[in-house]
């Protein structure tokens, strides 16, 4: 399991800048532990693919419910990823009834 950094973009404050664009508040970052990154922890994907090749999209999982928004960015091993689509609930196929979190990511930038 790995720790990732979740960065939430600041909310729009209601103010506008000199060009009329909305002004956002400060971004906040938190470290979140317990993430399974496909291809790293014995998953079905090629374990050498992530980190050695340009992998454009991955899905990460956590066995607990984690507050991740569709506008967040997630940093994994120094690479920044953006959330794609809806953050989903996930239940372990091993029979756990505890709800977790599944997040699909695309490389940012």
* Named CATH architecture: Beta Barrel
Instruction: Estimate nothing, just give the exact number of structural domains.
Output: 1
What is the chain-wise order of helices and strands? EEEEEEEEE
The global form is elongated
Mean pLDDT value = 81
Query: Structural class of the secondary structure composition?
Result: mainly beta
User: Stretches where pLDDT falls below 50 for ≥5 residues?
Assistant: 41-49
How does this model look, in words?
By secondary structure, the protein is mainly β. It has one domain (2-9, 24-107): Thrombin, subunit H, CATH 2.40.10. It is 0% helix and 49% strand. The strands form 2 sheets. It has a 6-stranded antiparallel β-barrel. A two-stranded antiparallel sheet has the order 2-3. A hairpin with a 7-residue loop joins strand 8 and strand 9 (99-107). It starts with a strand and ends with a strand. Mean pLDDT is 81; it is low at 41-49.
Structural topology:
Blueprint: E1 2-8, E2 12-16, E3 22-24, E4 28-37, E5 57-62, E6 73-76, E7 79-83, E8 88-91, E9 99-107
Antiparallel strand pairs: 1-4, 1-6, 2-3, 4-5, 5-9, 6-7, 7-9, 8-9
